[in-house]
Design a protein that fits this description.
Number of domains: 2
Strand content: 5-15%
CATH topology of the largest domain: Rossmann fold
CATH architecture of the largest domain: 3-Layer(aba) Sandwich
Largest sheet: 8 strands, mixed
Radius of gyration: 22 Å
Strand order of the largest sheet: 3-2-1-4-5-6-7-8
CATH class of the largest domain: Alpha Beta
Number of helices: 13
CATH superfamily of the largest domain: NAD(P)-binding Rossmann-like Domain
Structural class: alpha/beta
Length: about 280
């Protein structure tokens, strides 16, 4: 695999996450000519080609160019996409990054024609989240044994183009990453929904309740990111004894909010494990 300063990256699938990664890479100075996208949809590709990126409807053509291949197709079609490419993948041996949720490395490796350990391609599973679409993402990463230090550094450059990256040492921890950050934006959106609705019931109009809620969420996240203390201490600093915040937090504690989150995230992680078994079973 070539590890020049800007190796050629090929995206199989040109949907939202591939588009976000391309945007992040371009913002970092990655040359357009070193970014390829393949997709069945000419319409999906047209916007990329208009910006000087290389596009094709032929995955095999992309593989002839790419040093890094990002698998950005839906998990349900991954096996069908990879099997026809197995021989070419084994010959080219690119670094592979899968951003498809739920598909374990052993399944990817099997579909890519690895009959033995020596055939195993360097594969990294990546679990980005939707804030990656605005370059504010969080991505969990797990590497197969065939990925060397240079490969890991390159993956960090690619996925770091849209936000934070974090490696886990065991593949099953990707399910925990999914529970915390992969699905996490939906939890915060749900809290926002609830706060907006409660604000309206207290007499605010919906537009004002929405503006106050979203700015408060942004400000709280920014404080937590930049502060030298953790969220628990920040919460304490906002909570005056006998005050208004303490009264609200008492309601959350009486409802055992911590246990609710523990149960919800465990359910999410368990579903990730189930999907890995279901999706990885394809022949």
């Amino acid at each position: 695999m070539s590890l020049q300063q800007f190796p050629c990256i090929g995206f199989i699938g040109a949907g939202n996450m591939a588009t976000a990664l391309v945007g992040g890479l371009r913002a970092q100075g990655w040359p357009a000519k070193q970014l390829w996208l393949s997709d069945r949809s000419e319409e999906q590709l047209s916007a990329h080609s208009a910006h000087g990126l290389r596009t094709t409807t032929d995955n095999a053509e992309l593989l002839e160019k790419a040093d890094v291949v990002v698998l950005a197709v839906k998990p349900q079609v991954m096996a069908a996409v990879l099997k026809p490419l197995a021989k070419q993948m084994q010959a080219r041996r690119p670094l592979i990054i899968s951003i498809a949720a739920g598909i374990p490395i052993d399944a990817l490796s099997r579909w890519l024609g690895a009959a033995s350990v020596s055939d195993a391609l360097p594969i990294v599973r990546a679990m980005p989240n939707t804030p990656s679409l605005v370059q504010a993402g969080a991505t969990g990463l797990f590497a197969s044994a065939a990925v060397n230090a240079d490969g890991k550094n390159l993956v960090e450059r690619v996925m770091g183009a849209v936000g934070l990256t974090l490696w886990v040492e065991q593949e099953d921890l990707i399910d925990a990453v999914t529970a915390v950050s992969g699905s996490g934006p939906a939890y915060f959106f749900h809290v926002m929904e609830a706060m907006i609705a409660a604000g309206v019931k207290l007499g605010l109009d919906e537009q004002d309740a929405r503006a106050l809620t979203l700015q408060t969420a942004l400000g709280a996240a920014q404080m937590a990111i930049t502060s030298d203390v953790g969220p628990a201490e920040l919460r304490k600093r906002v909570t005056s004894p006998g005050g208004t915040t303490e009264r609200a937090l008492r309601v959350f504690n009486e409802s055992d909010l911590i246990h609710i989150f523990e149960t919800a995230l465990k359910a999410c992680a368990n579903r990730g494990t189930e999907l890995a078994l279901e999706l990885g079973a394809a022949d």
